[in-house]
Structure formats: structure tokens, C-alpha cells
Write a structure and sequence with these properties.
Helix content is about 50%, strand content about 15%. With about 170 residues, the protein is of the alpha/beta class.
């Protein structure tokens, strides 16, 4: 019970994500995603939340399980699964927990080892802890893009139809 109460307080008092992020970061990240998506047919989305919704906080599951569940729910809400080649990737941050999750659609997930994604998450985590938000997120976006380019490159003269918004979801 104490664990649920502590969890509830931490999330209820979490600062608004928009105020925590450097000014203009959303626009710069959107431009970066737009630029890297020109090299492959995949789609990259970024979702940053201040805290988990209360419906998650009332569950007794371990926080790691709740964060993964929330990331998958965001993957669905943002329709990252809705791409022609099933090669969308979501980078999810929960600021109250200082947690990062990555959800890859089945088209790319079957081609990439989980240790690859774990390494990418670890690198992003180090950057965020050091306060290098933009550098860390752009490096993570670049790494996801490079992975997508390896497995879903564009043919000569082909372009990415940009099936999803490039603007990060920040809530």
C-alpha cells in the first residue's frame, strides 16, 4: 500500500513535460525525424509524458511492467503500428519514473535483436541523466533510423511517404 501511495504522489506532483523540456525541442525533434526518415521506409515517433495516467498508478503491477504497458498503449494511440511495412518504432519517455521504453512494430522487431534496442535505450538514458536532452534524443533517433535504413532502405528514386506525424507527442 505504501508503494502505491508513493507512486501516486510522485506522478501527481510531476512537473508538466512541456515545462521540463528545452524551448523549441519539439520542433527541432520533428525536423530531425523528418530528415532521417528520408533514408528508409520506416516511421519513428517520440512520446514524452510527465507521468503515467492515474489508471496505471492504481495497479499493483511492478513499475517496469506498467511502463511497458503504457509504451505499448502509446504505440497504439499514435498508430505507430499502422504503416505499410509494419516498421514503425516508438521511443517513449516517462519523466516521473525517468524511464525509457522502445516499442518496435513486428516488421522490424523480427529483424533486430533485443540487445540492440537495450543498448540504444542505455545510451539515451545516459544522455538524459546528464541533461543532454536534445543530443540524447537525436542520437537515439539516428540509431533507430540507421537500423531502419539497414532493414528497410529506400530504392533509388523512392521516397518515404511519411505515414505518421514527425512531431513528438508531449503530455
Amino acid at each position: 500500500m505504501l508503494q502505491l501511495w508513493t507512486r501516486w504522489v510522485r506522478h501527481c506532483w510531476a512537473d508538466d513535460a512541456v515545462r521540463q523540456l528545452p524551448s523549441g525541442l519539439s520542433d527541432r525533434l520533428a525536423a530531425h525525424v523528418r530528415r532521417v526518415e528520408r533514408t528508409h521506409s520506416g516511421e519513428i515517433r517520440v512520446s514524452i509524458e510527465s507521468a503515467l495516467p492515474s489508471s496505471y498508478l492504481l495497479q499493483s503491477a511492478a513499475m517496469k511492467t506498467l511502463l511497458r504497458q503504457r509504451a505499448v498503449d502509446e504505440f497504439s494511440r499514435l498508430r505507430v503500428w499502422d504503416t505499410e511495412y509494419n516498421n514503425g518504432v516508438l521511443i517513449y519517455l516517462c519523466l516521473a519514473e525517468r524511464a525509457i521504453e522502445l516499442v518496435a512494430d513486428r516488421g522490424i522487431q523480427h529483424k533486430v535483436d533485443d540487445t540492440h534496442w537495450a543498448k540504444l535505450i542505455g545510451s539515451l538514458g545516459e544522455s538524459l541523466q546528464a541533461g543532454r536532452w536534445e543530443t540524447g534524443l537525436c542520437t537515439a533517433i539516428d540509431a533507430v533510423s540507421q537500423t531502419l535504413q539497414t532493414h528497410f532502405p529506400l530504392a533509388s528514386g523512392q521516397h518515404n511517404p511519411n505515414e505518421l506525424s514527425d512531431t513528438p507527442s508531449i503530455r
